[in-house]
Write a structure and sequence with these properties.
The complex is a heterodimer of chains A (about 290) and B (about 300). With about 290 residues, chain A is mainly alpha-helical. Chain A has a single domain, classed as MetI-like (MetI-like fold, Orthogonal Bundle), CATH 1.10.3720. Chain A is built from 15 helices and no strands. In chain A, helix 4 packs across helix 8, helix 4 packs across helix 11 and helix 13 runs antiparallel to helix 15. Chain B is an all-alpha fold. Chain B has a single domain, classed as MetI-like (MetI-like fold), CATH 1.10.3720. Chain B has a two-stranded antiparallel ribbon with strand order 1-2. In chain B, a hairpin with a 7-residue loop joins strand 1 and strand 2. Chain B is globular, with a radius of gyration of 24 Å. The relative contact order of chain B is 0.13. The chains are: A mainly alpha (about 290), B mainly alpha (about 300). At the A-B interface, helix 1, helix 4, helix 5, helix 6 and helix 11 of A face helix 1, helix 3, helix 4, helix 5 and helix 6 of B.
């Protein structure tokens, strides 16, 4: 193709590096701060680097502020949401991909269009309804909607992938006497593991990061998930840390933020290629 | 014939849960919130029909409504173009033959999937007046620092910067669009003597106009709905009610949340929700109409 001068190449890599730094510096600062002592934070100007890394901060937040509970709560909700997504999105995607039923596309369009519906519009009636059922301060409002196909993006992504499979495979399985349910779980899903994995990761990230819904439905501190737990910790930091200085203990706040961010970074590092391609598919084909 | 009927049964069995969910968690709440927007409803008593009075109150009397509209529109008007420009520029950079493209792409995308609550807290700390990273770096360069996070002028700027950090989504979609542009077209344009800008303007831009359109529409909708970063940012600043200082970061979504779940003005908040929804629908319709002039679909 076109030749580039050495200078242009150097400029290109310099720009790429600079932007990469801008992406990573805040995260680095978060981790560094989480390893400092309180005096190191409060000193003016604060220390750049911790004199010796305070791993004890992680133990402090984990045990002292029951952070393990927030962590386990988040993990529980995310697991239930993932299970519900798989159980309802796989069959729905299969039906939309392979069956010829009248008004199928209309129905699929209606499902997809709910992506446009702002959560602000539905949240008040949903809150009223869930409160009437006595579900406020339980995990049900976070989980049940997903068990009823609430993860429209999952249906969309799986359907895209299922459609690339050859229908003759399905016919062959049907001739062998397999039921539709068996074909779905024994043939189609195992053949689509990359797409299923993508959906699992998307769903995990979405549930793990969600602030809005837990904030509304979980008013009991013991039930908090990580994002709400973090803010709750900041709001009550003085009380929780003995209220010595009237200052937010940023080193502990950053410890919490790291605990919450790290799993997402690790998972992304493992599956980033597939994940990014899943995002791309949503825009180009959608 | 029998096989056909069996297929219907399977179809509805498989999509049944999703259809039930659509009705219970989207259609019903949508219609019910429209009804509530015409009601006086503050939880303790059942909803009572009051016609348009919620809307009139919002437009004429509510002290927070217009400030929150203003904050959201200013944010949208600045953040969306910046984010589109930045993500397009980055996508064009990464579309060059660069080594380890996947690695760069991953690093640029990373902030987009991190929990926004945590990011808002980290940024709030970086932009702090005392001991914030930004002021320290500025100090090294000989500039005077600012109380960024707690200044009514700068707080919104901080939030715009923070949200630009998440340009990964549009960037990845631009990249995918760029990869679909046939290479021969560039070569043909090159042979015709088109310079870099002319190639971009007359080959790349028309061919990626569908993804550009998609990114603009999604970017505007996301900007109008901002909640997480504003709420978390306010909390990290120790504001008892997020949205400060002096309503400088009182986003529409945040205002709505406070009306509904802070003051339990749920009828009023439903009216706000429908104004937002109506505005989003209107804007999307206008976008689609305008798009006929500049978006070119390949087939």
């Amino acid at each position: 193709m076109h030749r580039r001068s050495t200078l242009a190449t150097a400029g290109l890599y310099a720009a790429l590096t600079l932007i990469a730094l801008a992406m990573l510096v805040p995260l680095g600062w978060m981790v560094l701060t989480s390893l400092k002592t309180q005096p190191e934070i409060l000193r003016s100007p604060p220390a750049w680097l911790p004199a010796s890394p305070q791993w004890v901060n992680y133990r402090t937040v984990w045990e002292g502020f029951a952070y393990y509970r927030f962590f386990l709560n988040s993990l529980f909700v995310a697991t239930m949401v993932i299970v519900g997504t798989l159980l309802t999105c796989c069959p729905a995607a299969y039906a939309f991909a392979f069956y010829d039923v009248r008004h199928k596309n209309l129905l699929f369009g209606a499902l997809l269009s709910t992506v446009m519906l702002p959560a602000q519009v539905t949240v008040i009636p949903l809150f009223k309804g869930f409160a009437a059922l006595g579900w406020v301060n339980t995990y049900l409002p976070l989980i049940v909607p997903v068990w009823l196909g609430g993860n429209v993006f999952g249906i969309f992504l799986l359907r895209q992938f299922f459609r690339t499979l050859s229908p003759s495979l399905l016919e062959a399985a049907r001739l062998d006497g397999a039921s539709e349910w068996e074909i779905l779980w024994r043939l189609v899903v195992p053949m689509s593991l990359p797409a299923v994995l993508t959906v699992v990761v998307f769903t995990f990230v979405w549930s793990w990061n969600d602030l809005f819904n837990p904030l509304i439905y979980l008013q009991n501190e013991e039930l908090c998930t990580l994002p709400v737990g973090l803010l709750y910790f900041i709001a009550r930091a003085e009380q929780l840390t003995g209220g010595s200085t009237g200052q937010i203990p940023w080193h502990l706040v950053m410890t919490l933020a790291t605990v919450m961010t790290l799993p997402v970074i690790v998972i992304f590092a493992i599956v980033q290629r597939r994940f990014v391609e899943g995002v791309a598919a949503s825009g180009v084909k959608g | 014939m029998r096989a056909g009927r069996a297929k219907h049964v399977w179809f509805w069995a498989f999509v049944g849960p999703a259809v039930a969910g659509l009705l219970c968690f989207s259609v019903w709440p949508m219609l019910y919130s429209l009804w509530l927007s015409f009601c006086h409803y503050e939880v303790v008593a059942p909803p009572r029909f009051i016609g348009l009075r919620n809307y009139v109150y919002l437009f004429r009397h509510d002290a927070a409504f217009w400030p929150s509209v203003r904050v959201t529109l200013v944010f949208t008007a600045i953040q969306v173009p910046l984010s589109i420009l930045a993500s397009l520029a980055l996508a064009l950079l990464l579309h060059q033959p660069v080594r380890a493209r996947g690695w760069w792409r991953a690093v640029y995308f990373l902030p987009s999937i991190l929990p926004q609550a945590a990011l808002a807290v980290v940024f709030g700390y970086i932009f702090q007046a005392d001991g914030g990273l930004l002021n320290r770096v500025l100090g090294l360069a000989g500039f005077a620092g600012q109380a960024w996070s707690s200044s009514p002028t700068w707080a919104l700027v901080v939030l715009i910067v923070m949200s630009l950090w998440g340009f990964g989504y549009p960037m990845v979609i631009f990249l995918a669009g760029l990869q679909n542009v046939p290479r021969e077209l560039y070569e043909a344009a090159h042979i015709d003597g088109a310079g870099a800008w002319a190639r971009f303007r007359h080959v790349t831009l028309p061919l990626i106009s569908p993804v550009l359109f998609f990114n603009v529409v999604m970017g505007v909708i996301a900007a109008l709905k901002v909640f997480d970063i504003a709420y978390a940012f306010g909390m990290a600043q120790g504001q008892p009610i997020p949205g400060g200082p002096a309503r400088a970061t009182l986003f529409y979504g945040l205002n709505l949340y406070q009306q509904a779940f802070g003051y339990f003005h749920m009828g009023l908040a439903s009216a706000m929700a429908w104004l937002l929804f109506g505005f989003i629908l209107l804007l999307t319709a206008v976008n689609f109409r305008l798009s006929r002039r500049w978006v070119h679909y390949a087939d």
